[in-house]
Each structure stands twice: as C-alpha cells, then as structure tokens.
Amino acid sequence: MPGSPTSQLSTPDAAVRLSASGLRFRGPLAEAWGSAAGAPDLLALLHGFRDRMSVRPVEDQARWSGVPVTRTGSLAQEAEKEKRTPWPQPLVSHYARYFRDGNRTAYEDLVRARQERLTRAVVMASLTSGQASRAASPASDSGAEAEVWLDEVIDGAFLLCEQSSWCWAAHDDVHARLGHVVPDPDRPYLDLGAGEVAAQLAWLDHVLVTSLDRRAPGLRRRIRQEVQERIISPFLEDNDWHWLGLDGHVHNWNPWIHSNILTAALFLVDDSELQAKTVARCIEGLDRFLAVIPADGAIDEGFSYWWNGAGRALEALALLEEATAGALAADLPVVRALVAFPHRMHIGQKWFLNVADGRALAESNLPWNMVRKWALRLGDEKSARHAEAMAAAAPDAAFGLGRTLHALLEGDVAPPDNSPTAPPLTAFTYLPSVQIMVARQTPGTTKGLLVTAKGGHNGENHNHKDVGSVTVAVDGVPLLVDAGQPTYTAQTFGPDRYQIRAMQSGWHNVPAPFGLEQGAGAEFGADVKQAPTPEDPRLVLELARAYGLDSGSRWTRTVSLDRPGSRVRIEDTWDLPAADAFASSASRAFATEGTDDVDIHFLLSGTVSLGPQGTATVLPHGIPAVHANSTSRGGILRWDLPAAVVLVDEWQLDDPLLASVWGARLTRLRFRMPVHQRSAGSFTLTMEATP
Fold first, then answer.
1. Residues 508-532: pLDDT tens digits?
2. Fold classified for 13-409
C-alpha cells in the first residue's frame, strides 16, 4: 500500500553535492557511468532502443505466441467477467472524502480497479491481436475478438486521459493551496499515482502501437499530450518536488516516481533531445536514492516497502541497461546488497520480518521474476533460489502493466523441470545500519525458532515507535509479533500519527518505564552495546535514549537465540531515576498517562492461554494464513519473575488490513514489575516451541 514519507534519512554532506542550478549530483551511477549518463551521450545510446526491449510489440509473433496459457488464465477469466461492463468511475465525492473525513480508500480503490482492468485488457488485446494476425482471414473470429479487446484498451486509456487528476487525493496540494476538494487541472501534482498512470499508458502504447493507430487514430497523440502536460513538463520545470531528494531526504517515492517517468520518457517522448534530457534527470534522481542506501543494503521501511522503493530502482536500472544495449550496466555493490535484502528478511512461507508500515505477510502478486533476473545476473544463488521459491504461478494485474508484461514475456521463474524450489532460509543476518538481527535455529528449514530484534531510531521512514522490538516465529509462523500497517487514512501521515495504536510503542514488544511512550524523531533511538555474530546471535541494546531518559538512566535489552537449548531469551535490566524525580523530567511529555508503574509489553498473535504461574502458551489458531490442519507448533512463554502482575489486553481487529494478516484479534501481555523493582531490576522472558 502506498504512503508518504514521515521522516528524514540522515545523509552524509559529501553525498549531497548540488551545483548552483540545484541539480548536479554525483552518486554511484555517475561514478560508474560518467558522461554516458548525461543527455548528450544518451542521444546516441538510446537510438533504436525499441528494438532491444524484452517487452515486444504484438507484431513480434515469436515472442507473444510463446506466452503459455498457464500464465494468462487468471487474467483472462477476470477480463472476460468485466468485458463490456461499465468501467469503475472515481467521482469527485470520492476524491473529496480525504479532505472531509480522512478516507483514502474510497477514491484510491476505484482508481486502482480501473487501472487493473486496463492492464488485463492490454494483455488480452496483445494475445488476441497475435492470434488474429496468424489467422487465414482478417475477418476471422480471432480478428473480431481482437477488436473487442482493443476497444476495451482504447476506452480505458481514454478514460485516463479524461480523468481530471492522476494524482491521489491524499497527496494533492490543492486543499492546502486553495482550500478546494476538487483537483486543479491547471496545476497537476506529480505523485505516485500520476507516475503509475503515465507508465501504464507508456507500456500499452509500446506493445499496441500499430493496432491503436489503426483502430483509434489520434489516441496516441492525446496520450502524449497528457503525459507531456501532467508528467514531463512538471518534472523538468519544477525543482520543488520533495521526492527529488535535493535536500538529502530520500525515500521510496524517489525511485517509484523516477522509474515511471523514465518509462514514459522512453516510450512517449518522441523528441530525442527532450527524451535524453528527461532520462538524464531520471538517472540523477535515482542516483540520489542509491547514494543513501547503506553498505549492508538495509531499507528502513522494511521488506514490504522494498518493492516500491528499492524494487522500483532495480526495475529502472534494468530498463536503462536494456535501452542502452548494456552501456549503462549497474553491476554495483549497492545493487548487490539491495537484491539480497528480501531473502535476508524471510521468516518462512509468505511471512517476512515487518518493521514500520509493513505487513508481516507478503502479498501474492509480487514480481519476483525481477529479483530472480537480477540475482542470476549478479551470480547471487541464494537470492535467485529465494525468488524462484516465492514466485506466483501467474502474474496479477495488481503487478502493474509493466511488471505484468515482463512476467509474461520473460518466461517462468520456476525451474525447467517444474520441481519445487526450496528457499535458502538463511541462518543469520545482521544489518548494522538499522540494527536489525534475524537468527534462525535450523538453517534451511522453518522448523524450530526464529527471532528478530530491532534497534534503530524513531525518525525512520514510515516510522513506528519500535526501538528495541522483538519478534519470534515458531515453525515459520510469527507468534510474538509486530502488528504492522493498518489501513491508511488522513491521520496516518498527519500530526496525530502516533495516536494510531499500531504505531505506538505501547503496542510493540518493548518496555514502558513509568508509562512512557517512546519519543518521535531520530534522536530517540538505541545504542548497540554488543553486536551479534553468526556464532553468537545475541544483540545487546541500550534503550534509555528512545524514551528521552536522562543520561544517568539505563535500560538494557539483550535478545539472543540459544540454538542448543532451543529457546529465545529476552532479558531486560534497568536502573531508572526515582518516580518523583522522573515526574519533573522532560520525558514525561512522552508518557501515555501519569504513573509510576514499570511495564514490559509483548504482543501475541493466535490464541493465548495463561498457564501455571510464570508461563503462557500461544498457538497459531485463528491466524488466516495458518490452515487448520497445519503442523505448525505453538510457543511456550516463561518468565523469571512470577511475582510480576500479568495484565491481558485483547485488541479486536476491526481494521480489514490488520485482520487479513492476524485474524480477529491480537493479545498484549503487560508484565508489571513489583514495587521494589521499579527503579532498578531485571526481567527475563523466554520462548520455546511446544512439543
């Protein structure tokens, strides 16, 4: 689910080098490519690029006739259902809802439905146009069918051209500027939604070029006019777009939008000099994104947002390499690190470590073929194997048109013998830039325990107050969990963001000393006291700074995986000021309520039962992705302080996005320390698998 940036990445001053024009930048791409990345050289490099594209126009019968039916069946079935029915129609009342009551989905869901239908229609038109061209008679049944699908494409494309705004209401500045709740067509806002439309129109123009000219003369001219006015001109003429990263704050909007503008420039800008200028600026923008990626390839927004950040950058780089016949090849260390990130975050099945605004359960329509291509190109066997194991049987229109076409025309990601591919299920990962550890009990299998621990800070992109948080999975199913992303509304990226329960530290697996919420901002973070190693998967974090506690305070959390003992151990020790001294502390500003209680919170999925004193059992019952006949075991929690009061809070999940991952509820256990352990003490929780 798309969103908005919430904080600033820290960027070394040396990485941001702007000229007097405000545009010159030298990052890893400029270092590798030199003048070849500039507009003058691109004029020559891009000459004849269409003939080099792996996504081919429908006239390339060898390529389109080779698309297996197994890859298109689900797309065709859905397309047949909606053919000749009214198109989804987003209305101004839907647009206005964001400004009136904060609802984003009323408008965005209809926009998405319209574009997914158009993607399916393009696939069907491409497949049937090829069949028609092979038919003996132009008036054959296949020819008539091709015309029907072409008309579907024409109608959908023209609806987009007529749509007053391609921007999503949640991003439009029209209300802030004018107080309006309707889009301003005279000042188009270039956001994620606008980029998506431009790229979709570019891909359909590329594959259906002669068919569109024959069936709807003038449509391609109209498409170019709209893209020029809404995308290319604003991009080249306005340096104030926040997502350009000119101030060093670079987030996932940067590669997401630049990759779509790049596609539009290649296929819809016919003036070669303007095309080269636009492509050069896209390269410069992508370079800013790559320049702030740490050496370990970590994405602070996590696996879920990797696809619409790093993944978009990788797609853009692949497109550039293809269009320039390999002159702009990106075999760079930063690219290798980014390609490896998804498999390093894998828990098991479709479960991944989720941080910030991320889902723990991966969507089924992710374009793993793109990851596999990069991994094979780079010789990264683990990433390639992981991509093969995760790949869907067929692309989904939710891929987006470009990703769908690549998935169809570049072949299956499955191995030739169709045998199942086992993911690598890596034993250990530590990413020091974000202070994230992932440790697995038994490498190569989901059986047993997996623990993750996160330090970091509360100024990360799409941040949740999760400094010090821990998750634990048993047999590949998360049981000690991070709730993740709820449905986005106006509140999500507004001043009241941290009033949302899922974003609060009180609903993450972290302490609450004296009722404190963690602070918001990069200054509220963790300090690593001991980094883990593959042989000793133990991360020691100092968390006092996350709560704004004074320098004399200490809260140390140690998270470790005891492989021989088959248990995860979470140990907290603290030394805090007295409650009366704390009451006057600046930290009180982050307290949810006035209290001298010291609590430690743990959030659990499935079904939780308190057992004999000092124990609890959590079973994966009720988690939608876990089938009733699953062999996944549960977990047993034990704690070393039976005198602590255990408070149980049920979180009934009425948010459809959270419920789709976790089911009807999540359960929070609050361990309240006894009076004599409030100022100083220790508490240890262990978790092991049920028999």
1. 999 999 999 999 999 999 999 999 9
2. Glycosyltransferase (1.50.10)
